């Protein structure tokens, strides 16, 4: 009797050598040439078998539209914030005055080329006092969409496009959208528990959430990747460099750490893939499935899914309750502030709010820093509160 040759199901996957958008998991079915003996059999089930090189739905490539929409939303909100800021009206001096009311605050007040703190606060920046005392919990979400300056916006949006588009192509807009927003919330929550004397804005926590999810996705789908260690080392180095930047002043590394931790746990929940053995079995011809019973997910994937879901939900609830009760985690961790800023001879990590005493004589205004006693005299014609606050910030910082 002639030996019967069965068609093979080959699943190909590109190894993740870097963070490029093109490295997408993309299994396809490759049909071997049918023998004459099987030609009639294949005709009977051809309608049930995927055509050659058709994408398998469990690994389909999505069209990315949500992440670009997030980028557009952030840019539009930055423009609105600059309009609300109106530097020529509310400050004595501005940068790039040819932009009119869209000009930037003085560099000493905002080195990121952006608006004033008061304008960001009006737009929904994270202010712990307003969250706790005025019950404005929505600021934990709105601050994710605001940025402190043009440089801040460009850095975050470039990172979001590079990382987010690749993830959305692989996993779709629903899972990546939820991961982005929840990670951003987690970053805001940790930031609020540590940095309680300043406002905080930026998509950094959410972007770091995507980085954390990439790491956990590599771990939970470990068996389907080639060059595993190379991919892991590359990703860890990129994450370490980004976290190291967070020790510089004016950078909220607690938001980075909170977003990364949240995204890392959520990656095990949202980005778990079925194993290739199960996919091969599911898409194989009907006659070749007899006796095959491979599980969709491995045991370690299910365990990580359950543990991560418990940890992320518990952490969010505990953190939110602690925040609303006015807990300051710096009181329980004397060294934790070094995770956000390490003081050196070149910069100071003191970001406490400044205040001044103002004295007026005709058009002469003398401002004296409350903490250092440093003073300055300015000639002003009917200045408003915002202008005096800006001068105070420039003088005392």
UniProtKB/TrEMBL annotation:
<dbReference type="GO" id="GO:0004252">
    <property type="term" value="F:serine-type endopeptidase activity"/>
</dbReference>
<dbReference type="InterPro" id="IPR002610">
    <property type="entry name" value="Peptidase_S54_rhomboid-like"/>
</dbReference>
<dbReference type="Pfam" id="PF01694">
    <property type="entry name" value="Rhomboid"/>
</dbReference>
<dbReference type="GO" id="GO:0006508">
    <property type="term" value="P:proteolysis"/>
</dbReference>
<feature type="transmembrane region" description="Helical">
    <location>
        <begin position="177"/>
        <end position="195"/>
    </location>
</feature>
<comment type="similarity">
    <text>Belongs to the peptidase S54 family.</text>
</comment>
<feature type="transmembrane region" description="Helical">
    <location>
        <begin position="229"/>
        <end position="248"/>
    </location>
</feature>
<keyword id="KW-1133">Transmembrane helix</keyword>
<dbReference type="InterPro" id="IPR022764">
    <property type="entry name" value="Peptidase_S54_rhomboid_dom"/>
</dbReference>
<keyword id="KW-0812">Transmembrane</keyword>
<feature type="transmembrane region" description="Helical">
    <location>
        <begin position="62"/>
        <end position="83"/>
    </location>
</feature>
<keyword id="KW-0378">Hydrolase</keyword>
<protein>
    <recommendedName>
        <fullName>RHOMBOID-like protein</fullName>
        <ecNumber>3.4.21.105</ecNumber>
    </recommendedName>
</protein>
<keyword id="KW-0720">Serine protease</keyword>
<dbReference type="InterPro" id="IPR035952">
    <property type="entry name" value="Rhomboid-like_sf"/>
</dbReference>
<feature type="transmembrane region" description="Helical">
    <location>
        <begin position="254"/>
        <end position="272"/>
    </location>
</feature>
<keyword id="KW-0645">Protease</keyword>
<feature type="transmembrane region" description="Helical">
    <location>
        <begin position="144"/>
        <end position="165"/>
    </location>
</feature>
<feature type="transmembrane region" description="Helical">
    <location>
        <begin position="201"/>
        <end position="222"/>
    </location>
</feature>
<feature type="transmembrane region" description="Helical">
    <location>
        <begin position="303"/>
        <end position="324"/>
    </location>
</feature>
<dbReference type="GO" id="GO:0005794">
    <property type="term" value="C:Golgi apparatus"/>
</dbReference>
<comment type="function">
    <text>Serine protease involved in intramembrane proteolysis.</text>
</comment>
<dbReference type="GO" id="GO:0016020">
    <property type="term" value="C:membrane"/>
</dbReference>
<keyword id="KW-0472">Membrane</keyword>
<feature type="domain" description="Peptidase S54 rhomboid">
    <location>
        <begin position="135"/>
        <end position="272"/>
    </location>
</feature>
């Amino acid at each position: 009797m002639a030996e019967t040759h069965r068609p093979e199901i080959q699943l190909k996957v590109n190894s993740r050598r870097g963070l490029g958008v093109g490295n997408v998991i993309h299994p396809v079915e490759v049909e071997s040439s049918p023998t004459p003996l099987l030609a009639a059999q294949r005709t009977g089930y051809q309608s049930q078998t995927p055509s050659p090189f058709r994408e398998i739905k469990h690994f389909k490539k999505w069209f990315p539209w949500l992440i670009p929409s997030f980028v557009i939303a952030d840019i539009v909100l930055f423009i609105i914030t600059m309009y609300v800021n109106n530097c020529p009206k509310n400050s004595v001096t501005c940068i790039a005055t040819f932009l009119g009311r869209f000009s930037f605050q003085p560099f000493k007040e905002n080195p990121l080329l952006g608006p004033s703190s008061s304008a960001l606060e009006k737009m929904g920046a994270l202010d712990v006092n307003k969250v706790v005392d005025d019950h404005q919990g929505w600021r934990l979400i709105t601050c994710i969409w605001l940025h402190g300056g043009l440089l801040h916006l460009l850095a975050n949006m470039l990172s979001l496009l590079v990382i987010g588009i690749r993830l959305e192509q692989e996993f779709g807009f629903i899972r990546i959208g939820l991961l982005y927003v929840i990670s951003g919330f987690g970053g805001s929550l940790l930031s609020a528990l540590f940095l309680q004397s300043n406002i905080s804005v930026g998509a950094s926590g959410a972007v770091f959430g995507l980085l954390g999810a990439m790491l956990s996705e590599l771990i939970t789908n470990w068996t389907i990747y080639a060059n595993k260690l190379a991919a892991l080392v590359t990703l860890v180095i990129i994450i370490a460099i980004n976290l190291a930047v967070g020790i510089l002043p004016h950078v909220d590394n607690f938001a980075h750490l909170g977003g990364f931790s949240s995204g890392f746990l959520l990656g095990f929940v949202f980005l778990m893939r079925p194993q290739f053995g199960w996919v091969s079995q599911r898409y194989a011809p009907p006659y070749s499935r007899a006796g095959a019973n491979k599980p969709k997910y491995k045991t370690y994937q299910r365990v990580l899914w359950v543990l991560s879901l418990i940890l992320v939900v518990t952490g969010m609830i505990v953190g939110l309750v602690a925040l609303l009760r006015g807990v300051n985690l710096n009181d329980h961790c004397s060294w934790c502030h070094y995770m956000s800023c390490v003081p050196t001879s070149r910069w100071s990590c003191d970001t406490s709010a400044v205040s001044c005493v103002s004295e007026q004589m005709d058009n002469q205004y003398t401002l004296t820093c409350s903490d250092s006693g440093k003073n300055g005299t300015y000639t002003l014609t009917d200045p408003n509160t915002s202008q005096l606050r800006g001068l105070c910030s420039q003088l005392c910082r």
